[in-house]
Prior knowledge:
Number of strands: 4
Order of helices and strands: EEHEEH
Shape: globular
Structural class: alpha+beta
Strand order of the largest sheet: 1-2
Distance between the termini: 37 Å
Helix content: 10-25%
Number of domains: 1
Radius of gyration: 15 Å
Largest sheet: 2 strands, antiparallel
Amino acid sequence: MNIYLVILVDNEDGQIRELETSEVHIKDVIIKPFSFYILNSKKTMQQRAFNKYHFPLLRTKATCTNFTPEEIHDDVVRHKMKKEMRIENELTEIIPK
């Protein structure tokens, strides 16, 4: 079984330590995830299928994951976009408030 580590951060996005992904969802911690959305000028382009059990037809993110300690932000996002969506494009970072 592979062990994957993700980055834990404080409230200011400063890296605190690393934790196994299997523990992240059962502990009260803050992780450093990312999501990406496919947008046009009006709205989110990605839409869930009508036959999905939860939230059918909801417009949502295209994919998401967590950063691992050895990854560089832009490289990971570009790799994930290319691997999962077969998209190679410019990135625009949007920080949620």
